[in-house]
Amino acid sequence: MRKNRFIGNFVGNLAALPRQDSHEGLPLALLPEEATLMVEKELADFKEVPSLSTMPADGIRQESQSYRNEILSEQVGLLKDMRKKEIEKNIKQIVEGKKRKRMTDALEALTDEELEKQILKEECDRVQDPKPSVLSVQIFTSDPWIKLDDYVDAVWRYPETDEDRLHYFVYKDLWEQGFFVTSGKKFGADYLVYPGDPVKFHSFFIVVCVDKKRQFTPAEIIMRGRLGQSVRKTFVLAYLSDDDKVNYQSVQWTGK
Length: 256
Prior knowledge:
This protein is an alpha+beta fold and 256 residues long. The chain folds into two domains: 2-46 and 155-251, Trna Endonuclease, Chain: A, domain 1, CATH 3.40.1350.10; 60-134, no CATH class. It is 38% helix and 15% strand. The strands form three sheets. A five-stranded mixed sheet has the order 5-6-7-8-9. The protein is elongated and about 100 Å long. It starts with 8 loop residues before the first strand and ends in a 5-residue tail after the last strand.
């Protein structure tokens, strides 16, 4: 996708850092403009799984619960093994602690090696299964029960409205000029336009799609121009002509 200049936007948490929101991870959300253009350029296709819109059958539910129980059981075994290895690693300190306390005559009669083995066995036998509340719940990135044959062609109606057409034509025109285009919501715009990969470059343009008949007040024009100046970008208004050709009008603030 990225080599074809389709960026998308990560909207999920990072699995390794779930309690932060500075960086996002999978899934990746695409703008409708991106998805439509990818299909138009034969780089993707729209598919859906009808069964996901209905309640799962009893067999699927039972299979899912069985698989979940199997995963939790594996976790229990791994956690118990980790606890036993921790005991083995610290067995000498545990034995010394036992020696400082009163031991039964049976334990006192054992040699140091026998005592260590006996205490190791007792401590390992005391290891209990962890509570379900401390176990991790696996979140699947794909459905393990969906087969390739379950996918059918999806109906995609974008762009439907005049506003949709305006946005799509503007996005497509910028993309065909070789720019990288992402959502411009954080600047109150429609798109941010980059000369190269956003990882390496800052955006050059803030683009807002407008109806060609839209009239702006002087205050609006000044506001948009000052916004572009404050973030060191050029503010651009994009609109369609009568023949659906995309036109651009830049707004730059030169006041003090």
